[in-house]
Amino acid sequence: DAGVTQSPTHLIKTRGQQVTLRCSPKSGHDTVSWYQQALGQGPQFIFQYYEEEERQRGNFPDRFSGHQFPNYSSELNVNALLLGDSALYLCASSLAWREVGGELFFGEGSRLTVL
Amino acid sequence: AQRVTQPEKLLSVFKGAPVELKCNYSYSGSPELFWYVQYSRQRLQLLLRHISRESIKGFTADLNKGETSFHLKKPFAQEEDSAMYYCALSGLSTDKLIFGTGTRLQVFP
Questions:
Q1: Shortest CB distance from B43 goes to which of A33, A103, A107?
Q2: What is the arithmetic mean of pLDDT over A6-13?
Q3: pLDDT of residue B50 exceeding 80
Q4: Going by C-beta distance under 8 Å and a sequence separation of 6 or more, which residues neighbour residue A42?
């Protein structure tokens, strides 16, 4: 099991562009969460997908959107990129939303640089 | 407000010394508390969680509801403990995690 896989690992965009990041969850997991980790900060929750629907959302603008596919993989889309969107974007998978204190399994992240 | 505070950005100790990484939280209700760790060139992974009451790699963490703290402790640090440590919490009906800013632990030989 390769665990949670994310692509691309690194990418550079310019302000105003759009970006799509992809995530495949750990085998057997059906819930995918996305986090943004700015330099020197802890991960910050963006949103979570289960059964192809957004279940929870953090304090992020509508420019951040996502999707989950029938095979449980997920995409994170960011429109109208700002310099402040430069960060490491982490995907995490779980069965945990139904389990109190469950474990999240993280990918290695996609590092986005906005110029 | 829901918040996790890790007051130390960096903690440096010598091998064999005791370690305590501090974590304080603010949450209305009864949260679940976790410690996640990121070793060099590895992904973020769960170290331990309050609900399991377990000791992992010699680390323990006790939830103190009165002081709203969940400090991570190890009596004798090892060089392989050097890593970035994040304290996190979630609510009872969700696995959305709120993370602290992290503490880098350096263990010198």
A1: A107
A2: 97
A3: yes
A4: B4, B86, B88, B99, B100, B101, B102
